[in-house]
Write a structure and sequence with these properties.
Elements: H1 2-22, H2 25-36, H3 44-60, H4 62-78, H5 82-85, H6 96-108, H7 118-125, H8 131-137, H9 140-149, H10 157-182, H11 185-190, H12 193-196, H13 200-218, H14 225-248, H15 252-279, H16 285-300, H17 305-328, H18 336-365, H19 370-390, H20 399-414, H21 419-462, H22 469-477, H23 486-513, H24 516-521, H25 524-530, H26 532-569, H27 578-591, H28 598-630, H29 638-651, H30 664-675
Helix pairs in contact: 1-2, 1-3, 2-4, 3-4, 3-9, 4-10, 6-17, 8-16, 9-16, 10-13, 10-15, 13-14, 14-15, 15-16, 15-17, 17-20, 17-23, 17-28, 18-19, 18-21, 18-27, 19-26, 20-21, 20-28, 21-27, 21-29, 22-27, 23-26, 23-28, 25-26, 27-28
Length: 676
C-alpha cells in the first residue's frame, strides 16, 4: 500500500510539473483525480491515503498549493460554471417523459463535451459512474483538510471576485426559477392561498434582489436570514401540498414540480451559505464539501434511469397504495359478524363466477378469431367482476393486493420494535389469513355446486351435456398439479391481480385529483336526463367506486387477453384462477356423471390448492413489496414476527380459521378510545 501511495505521489508531482509548462487547468485536475481514484469504488481507505498524500505535498510546497488553487479558481471563473451550479440531479423544466427519453438516448449515445463549460468538464474529471461512491465515502474532514492546505485566503483577488460574481449569478437564476415554479398553475390549484397572500416563492426573490443590490451599492454585509426564512416557508408549503395529496390526489406533473422546487431550494441554500461565509470571511469548508459531493453525485447519476424512475414514482406509489390501504381494511375481518358477512359476500361472488365460467365455455365453443375471442373473454370477465363489485360481493384473490397495503401500514408502525405494535402486526396477519381462507372457501364452495346446477339445467332443457367428455377431461387436465403448469399460470394471474390493485388505486387518485364527480355534476345534458339529485348520487357513487370498477374491469381484460397475447407471441402464456378453475371442475364432474377415480379427485384438489396458493403468493408479495417501498419501510424483525406467529399458531390454532368470540384487537382498542 505504501508503494502505491508513493507511486501516486510521484505521478501527482509529474502532473504539477506538466502544469508548469502548459498551464492547462482542466488537465491538472483530471490528472490529480486519476491518482486519487481507487482501483475499486469501495476502497475508500486508498482514496483517503491518496488525498492525505496530496495534502502533505501541498503543505510542504507552497508553489504547488498556489498552482492547484489557481487552477480551481480559474475553472470556477473562466469556464462558464453557471450551468454546473444550477445542476440539481435532473432537469428543472422538462417533463417526466422528456427526461426519460433524454436519459435513454444519452445512455445509448453520450452527449458531446464542450470543454468551455465546467459542467461538461465534470464528465472528464469523473469518468466512471461509480466515482460518486468513493467521493461521498471519503469523510468530510479529509476533503476539508485538502481545502485548508490550498490556502484560498492567499488567492488572487481578481479570481476570487470573479468566482463570487458567478456564485451570485447562479443564486439569482435559482431564485428566479424557484419563483417561477411557485407560480405554476398546478401548485396554485393545490394551494390557492398563494394567490390570496404574499407568496414566499416571490418574496424570496425580492429578498435576494435586495441582498445583491446592497452588496453592489455600499458593500454592506447584509444578512441572508430573511431569504432563508422565505425558503423555509416555501418548503413548508411543499410539505403541506404533499400531505394534502392524500385527500386531494396527485399527478406525475405535481410530483415532479414538488421535487424540482425542493432541489432548487436546496441548491440555493448551499450557494447562499457559501456567499455568506465569504462575505463574513468565515470558513465555508463544510458547505463547499457538501456542494462538491452533490455535484459529483449529479454527474455520475445524470443518466441513471432507475433512480429517476424511483424518485418520480415514490409519491405516486404512496397515493396509490394509500387508496388500496383504505380499501384493504374492509377485507380484514376481526369479529365473527364481519367474518360471516365476508363469507356470505364470497358465496354471492361464487354464483356469478360460475355463470362467467359458463359464458366463457360458450364463447370458446364458437371458435372466434383469436383477437375477437380475446375481446369477448375480456368483456365477459370484466363485466362479471364489475357486477360482483356492484352487488358488494367478494372475489377471494382480489383481497391480497388490497390487504397488503394495510399490512404495510401496520409494519410501518411495528418497525420501531415496540411490543404493542408487534402484537398488532401479528393480529393483523392472523386476521388477514383467516379472512383470506373464508373468502376462498365462500367462492369455491358455491362455484362448484352452482356450476353443477347449471350443467343439470342445460341437460334438462336440451337433453345434452353442457360440456362434452373430451372437453371435461381437458378442463381437468388443465389444472393437473404436475403436467399442466397450473402453478406457473396461477402466478401470471397473480401478477394481473397485483396490477389491478395498482389500477384501482390510480383511478381512485384520478377521480379525486381531476374532480371527476364535480365535473360530472356540471354536465348539462346529464342534469336534464337524470335530474340534479339523481346525478348527484351517480357522481357520489363514481367518486367512491371509480377505482374499484376500473380495477375490476381491467383485471377482466388482463385475464381474457393474456391467452391471445401468448398465441400472438408464440409463447405458452395463460392464466389460472382458483374460482374459475373450481367452476370448471364442477362442469367437468357433472359431464362425466361423477365417474372420477380417487386419483383424479386428489389431483384436482391439489391443483386447485396450488392455483390458489400461486394467485395469493404472487399478488400479495408484489403488493406488499410496493407498499413497503412506497412507505420506505425497513422491517428487520422478520424472525421475531415468524416466531410470534408460530407461537400464536401453537397456542390458538383455531384463530387462523375462525375468529374468537371476543376480538382481541377490539379489546385493545377500547382504552385508546376512552383516552381520546
Amino acid at each position: 500500500m505504501n508503494n502505491k501511495v508513493s507511486n501516486h505521489t510521484n505521478l501527482m508531482e509529474q502532473a504539477f510539473e506538466q502544469y508548469t509548462h502548459h498551464e492547462d487547468a482542466p488537465r491538472l485536475i483530471a490528472d490529480l483525480l486519476a491518482q486519487i481514484r481507487p482501483e475499486k469504488a469501495e476502497q475508500t481507505d486508498a482514496a483517503v491515503k491518496s488525498i492525505q498524500a496530496l495534502c502533505y505535498l501541498l503543505s510542504t510546497d507552497a508553489v504547488k498549493a498556489s498552482q492547484l488553487r489557481s487552477a480551481i479558481l480559474l475553472l470556477l471563473s473562466a469556464y462558464n460554471p453557471l450551468s454546473l451550479f444550477l445542476t440539481a440531479r435532473h432537469s428543472v423544466f422538462t417533463g417526466f417523459f422528456s427526461e426519460m427519453r433524454r436519459r435513454i438516448s444519452h445512455k445509448i449515445l453520450p452527449e458531446a463535451i464542450d470543454e468551455a463549460y465546467l459542467v461538461d468538464l465534470f464528465a472528464v474529471f469523473f469518468t466512471k459512474t461509480t466515482d460518486e461512491i468513493w467521493v461521498n465515502a471519503v469523510p468530510d474532514d479529509v476533503w476539508s483538510q485538502l481545502i485548508k492546505v490550498m490556502r484560498f485566503d492567499l488567492a488572487d483577488e481578481a479570481l476570487s471576485a470573479s468566482c463570487q460574481k458567478n456564485l451570485f449569478a447562479a443564486a439569482q437564476v435559482l431564485s428566479y426559477r424557484t419563483a417561477a415554479l411557485g407560480l405554476e398553475p398546478e401548485l396554485l390549484r393545490n394551494y390557492p392561498e398563494l394567490e390570496q397572500h404574499s407568496s414566499p416563492f416571490v418574496m424570496q426573490q425580492a429578498e435576494l434582489a435586495e441582498f445583491i443590490g446592497a452588496k453592489d451599492v455600499d458593500n454592506a454585509y447584509t444578512d441572508i436570514k430573511h431569504i432563508l426564512v422565505m425558503l423555509d416557508q416555501c418548503k413548508v408549503i411543499v410539505a403541506k401540498v404533499r400531505r394534502n395529496s392524500a385527500l386531494t390526489g396527485t399527478s406525475i406533473h405535481l410530483t415532479q414540480l414538488l421535487q424540482r422546487i425542493l432541489k432548487q431550494i436546496e441548491r440555493l441554500e448551499e450557494l447562499l451559505s457559501i456567499l455568506h461565509c465569504f462575505q463574513h470571511r468565515q470558513p465555508a469548508d463544510a458547505v463547499v464539501v457538501r456542494l462538491f459531493k452533490n455535484l459529483v453525485y449529479s454527474e455520475c447519476h445524470k443518466n441513471d434511469l432507475h433512480e429517476y424512475w424511483q424518485e418520480s414514482m415514490e409519491v405516486m406509489a404512496v397515493r396509490v397504495t394509500e387508496n388500496a390501504s383504505r380499501a384493504g381494511e374492509h377485507y380484514i375481518t376481526e369479529t365473527r359478524s364481519e367474518y360471516f358477512a365476508l363469507m356470505r359476500s364470497a358465496m354471492g361472488a361464487g354464483v356469478i363466477i360460475a355463470m362467467m365460467a359458463m359464458f366463457k365455455i360458450v364463447l370458446a365453443k364458437q371458435h372466434f378469431a383469436p383477437l375477437a375471442e380475446a375481446i369477448f373473454f375480456s368483456l365477459n370477465y370484466g363485466i362479471g367482476f364489475m357486477l360482483i363489485h356492484i352487488f358488494h360481493f367478494t372475489v377471494a384473490t382480489k383481497q391480497p393486493a388490497m390487504t397488503a397495503a394495510a399490512i404495510a401500514a401496520t409494519i410501518d408502525n411495528a418497525s420501531d420494535g415496540k411490543a404493542k405494535d408487534m402484537h398488532n402486526l401479528v393480529a393483523t396477519v392472523t386476521n388477514t389469513m383467516r379472512s383470506q381462507a373464508v373468502a376462498i372457501f365462500g367462492n369455491v364452495v358455491v362455484a362448484i355446486p352452482v356450476a353443477m346446477l347449471l350443467s343439470w339445467a342445460v341437460l334438462y332443457l336440451s337433453g345434452q351435456h353442457f360440456v362434452t367428455p373430451e372437453k371435461a377431461h381437458k378442463l381437468l387436465s388443465e389444472i393437473h398439479p404436475v403436467t399442466s403448469g397450473a402453478f406457473f399460470y396461477a402466478g401470471i394471474a397473480g401478477i394481473c391481480l397485483f396490477l389491478s390493485g395498482l389500477i384501482a388505486g390510480y383511478h381512485d387518485n384520478l377521480a379525486v385529483y381531476n374532480k371527476i364527480p364535480q365535473r360530472l355534476k356540471a354536465i348539462k345534458w346529464l342534469q336534464r336526463l337524470l335530474g340534479v339529485e339523481r346525478l348527484a348520487r351517480v357522481a357520489h357513487y363514481v367518486e367512491h367506486n371509480l377505482g374499484a370498477l376500473a380495477g375490476n374491469f381491467y383485471f377482466g381484460c388482463l385475464l381474457g387477453g393474456l391467452g391471445a397475447f401468448g398465441v400472438l407471441l408464440g409463447l405458452p402464456i395463460d392464466i389460472r384462477h382458483i374460482a374459475f378453475s373450481s367452476a370448471f371442475v364442477g362442469f367437468a364432474s357433472f359431464s362425466l356423471d361423477f365417474m372420477l377415480t380417487w386419483q383424479t379427485v386428489a389431483f384436482a384438489a391439489l391443483g386447485l390448492a396450488l392455483i390458489g396458493l400461486g394467485n395469493l403468493m404472487v399478488s400479495f408479495g408484489l403488493a406488499l413489496y410496493v407498499a413497503m417501498k412506497s412507505r420506505k419501510v425497513r422491517f428487520n424483525d422478520w424472525r421475531l414476527l415468524l416466531r410470534n406467529l408460530a407461537s400464536k399458531l401453537n397456542q390458538h390454532p383455531a384463530e387462523f380459521i375462525f375468529p374468537p368470540k371476543h376480538s382481541p384487537s377490539a379489546v385493545t382498542e377500547k382504552p385508546s378510545d376512552s383516552e381520546a
